């Protein structure tokens, strides 16, 4: 990581106080200027936007995984209909193997 130059003035961003109510000016020193305003590395609008974009992408990927898991769970539950609980594991494996064998022959 490259070393950034401290501009000798505080960051312009307003942040929550330690109680989560009210705001105060960021206590970090500014290291860059954007649109005539000075920011620390954390509050650099470009960095903030990049972090938000990454967060949204991670949320979308997680949501896609959760949706796929729901679909798989429902498919498994449907596959188990009619199988007594005490025979569930062997029955499910037997039915899944049968399903895959049948799909190979299609
Ligand atoms: Zn700041």
Fold and architecture overview:
This protein is mostly helical and 106 residues long. 50% of the residues lie in helices and 11% in strands. The chain has two helices and four strands, in the order ββββαα. The strands form two sheets. It has a two-stranded antiparallel sheet. Strand 1 (14-16) and strand 2 (23-25) form a beta hairpin. The radius of gyration is 27 Å and the shape is elongated. Zinc ion binds next to loops. Zinc ion (ZN) is lined by residues 11, 13, 26, 28, 39-40, 42-43.
Task: Detail the topology: elements first, then pairings.
Layout: E1 14-16, E2 23-25, E3 32-34, E4 37-39, H1 45-80, H2 88-104
Antiparallel strand pairs: 1-2, 3-4
The structure holds zinc ion (ZN).
Q: Which descriptors apply to this entry?
A:
about 110 residues, mainly alpha, two-stranded antiparallel ribbon, elongated, binds zinc ion
Overall helicity: 40-55%
Helical stretch tally: 2
The computed structural class is: mainly alpha
How far apart are the termini?
Answer: 56 Å
The helix/strand order is: EEEEHH
Q: Please, what is the average pLDDT?
A: 88
Q: Which cofactor or ligand species appear?
A: zinc ion
Whole-number radius of gyration?
Answer: 27 Å
Largest sheet, in brief, is: 2 strands, antiparallel
β-strand percent reads 5-15%
Anisotropy-based shape: elongated
Oligomer: single chain
Q: Enumerate the strands of the largest sheet in spatial order, edge to edge or round the barrel.
A: 1-2
Tally the beta strands. Answer: 4
Low-confidence stretches: none
């Amino acid at each position: 990581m490259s070393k950034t130059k401290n501009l000798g003035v505080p960051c312009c961003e307003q942040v929550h106080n330690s109680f989560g109510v009210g705001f105060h000016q960021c206590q970090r020193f500014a290291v860059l200027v954007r649109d005539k305003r000075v920011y620390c590395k954390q509050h650099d609008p470009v960095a903030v936007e990049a972090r938000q974009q990454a967060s949204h992408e991670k949320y979308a990927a997680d949501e896609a995984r959760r949706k796929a898991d729901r679909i798989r769970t429902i498919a498994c539950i449907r596959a188990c209909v009619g199988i007594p609980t005490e025979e569930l594991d062997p029955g499910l494996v037997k039915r899944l193997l049968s399903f895959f064998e049948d799909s190979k022959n299609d």
